Amino acid sequence: MNEPKKVIAAVDGSFLSTRVIQAAVEEARCRKAELHIVHVIENTWSNGDTARELAIRDLEEDAASLLSSMKAEVEAQGYEAIAHLLRGHPGDKIVDCAIDLGADIVILGSVGKSQVKRMIAGSVSTFVVTHCPVTTMVVKPVYPAHPS
Questions:
Q1: Whole-angstrom Cα distance, residue 13 to residue 139?
Q2: What pLDDT, on the 0 to 100 scale, is given for residue 46?
Q3: Max intra-chain CA distance, the chain
Q4: Over the stretch 25-74, which tens digit does the pLDDT of each residue have?
Q5: Beta-strand runs (E) in the chain
Q6: What integer pLDDT is reported at residue 47 of this predicted model?
C-alpha cells in the first residue's frame, strides 16, 4: 500500500505566511495530499531564568495562535491540515520534519533579506533549499511591476 502524499507548509508569522498557505493548499489539492503546517520556535536560550521562561511561554502562546489561525485559513479554503509546533533551529527542524514525515514537497516563504542581513542572521529558506532532500518551493513577495 502506498504512503499518503504529504505537503509541508512552513510558516513563520511573516506577511508571506498567508501566501505560503495558499500555495500549500493548491499543491495539496493537486497532489491529493495531506497538508502539514509547521512552525518552529527557535530556542537558543539557556534554562533557569524566570524572565526567559516567561518570554518562552509568550513565544509558545504566539506560536500556538499562529498555527491555529493558519489551520483556520486552510479550513476556510475547504481543506484540512495537521499542525506541528517544533522547537530548535528553524532550518534543521523543517528539514528533519520533511524527512520524518516522508514529505513530497516543502513550501516556505522568503522575505528577501539583504546580503548583509543574510550573512549575519542566515536565511531559513536558503538553508532548507540547500539541505532538504525533498523538493522545496519558495514563495516570494509580490512587488509592483517595475515601470519601463
A1: 14
A2: 57
A3: 57
A4: 999 999 999 999 999 998 765 556 677 777 778 888 999 999 999 999 99
A5: 6-10, 34-41, 82-87, 105-109, 135-139
A6: 59
Give me the domains of the chain, ranges plus CATH numbers. Answer: 6-139 (3.40.50.620)
Q: Which amino acid is at 66?
A: L
For 10-21, b where at least 16 C-beta lie within 10 A, e where not — what string? bbbeeebbebbb
Cell numbers representing residue 64 in the block: 500556538
| Phi/psi-derived region of residue 97, left when phi > 0, alpha when psi is between -120 and 50, beta in every other case | alpha
CA dihedral 42, 39, 115, 143 (to 10 degrees): -150
The whole-model pTM stands at 0.85
What's the pLDDT at 119?
46
Burial of 119 (0-12, 13-18, 19+ CB in 10 A): exposed
Question: What does the angle CA 59 – CA 65 – CA 71 come to, to the nearest 5 degrees?
Answer: 135
Dihedral sign for Cα 115, 13, 104, 89, please.
positive
For residue 99, the 8-state DSSP code is H
